[in-house]
Amino acid sequence: MKSNQTLKVLFWHRKSKADSKGFAPIICRISIDGKDAEFSTTLKAHVEHWNVEAKKVMKSADSKKINSVLNQIENSLEVNFTVLKTQHDFINPMMLKNIFHNRPIESKKGKIEKIEQKTPSLLKLTEIHIKDFSELVEKKLRSKETLKQWKATQKKISEFLKFEFKVDDLNLSEIEYSFAQRLYKYLTVKRNQVLKDAAAMKQIKNLKQILNIAEANLWITKNPIEKFKCGSEEPEIIPLEIFEVEKIWRKKLSIERLAKVRDAFIFQCFTGFAYQDIYNLSKEHIMYVGSDKEPWLVKERGKTKVTEMVPILPIITELIEKYKDHPYCKVNDRLIPVNSNFRYNSYLKELSDICGVGKPLNSHLARHTFADMMLNVLHFPLEDVSKMLGHKNIRTTQRYARVKKSRIGKKMNEAKSILFEDNGELKKALQQT
């Protein structure tokens, strides 16, 4: 390990913040070599039920549940700390706090430099933004895929200006609210290759961000399309059922290129890694954590720069072993051979037909399938699924992993056994412990 620092985790009761009913928040303090960081556990306990010496809740109906969550927090911090020790020579408490909350490990603050130049035109401003973004990509602070999206937005704005205004560029002062409305209509109706609603809204959202930059630099007094709502109903992605995943896994394939694509897809289904992250996986991303030295895949997600951590399941071990001596993997230091994004998704469509799945396969579907499997089949808490997916916000995870009726039914059956007798009679109230 690079670091030999030690971690201490302490829970304490902030009684000074107790509410009118006597409930006060429980705070977690992280200490690493004398330096501290704190965060709220979002849990509360009555001032009479907190044991100062044991640092736990006692003599409360919720004591078992609350103490269990506190143990989970402590265990998660220890696992994250172990991982950080393998990656960094020095760790401070804020780094551990950030990775625990699914944020980038370090938030770098730099000086804001004012751009000394005349007010740029719309496409010139877009070009400036792309140049700045490219520098962040070179420093590996932003994703190459996101940079491609910005270049695509620039191209579509240029197309629109020529089609609608018969000009090559436009002054920022000439842009009005109707600009967004007309751009949306062009993208969804008038363009040769029309976009779907969500894709068109994404382009306008990017334009709005460009104009926010203009406003921040005082090149315009106010973003003219700020009030244009870019909300769009996202199409629900139906994940694969576990029997469909098994069907793909067990399919005998005589074509090598399809067999490799199938293996990569299965790898995604059981790790939840996005295409760009599975593409770059190497041996250095395998970490051994905990007292049992369990193997995990730990990687900074390319899109969000949030660390995603997934235990290596037996099927993943099998795939890593299968390709350890593959020429591509040996030369490029990769765990598994993966095609270019275009070829990968093209071959997946072919694989879908051969396996008779009945729905198109793509790399993003595998990520949704992993989320669904973790939540509804293996019953992981949503917070754990969010951590494994490398999401910044749990609301994003909620879009990936929707609770199924089968999960609700199972929980309701458990609730029935607690609340009701076998004959349907309501059980007598249990005495509080």
From TrEMBL:
CDD domains: INTN1_C_like (cd01185). It comes from the Bacteria. Residues 233-413 form the Tyr recombinase domain. Signal peptide: none annotated. PROSITE patterns: TYR_RECOMBINASE (PS51898). The keyword DNA-binding applies. This is Site-specific integrase. It comes from Pedobacter fastidiosus.
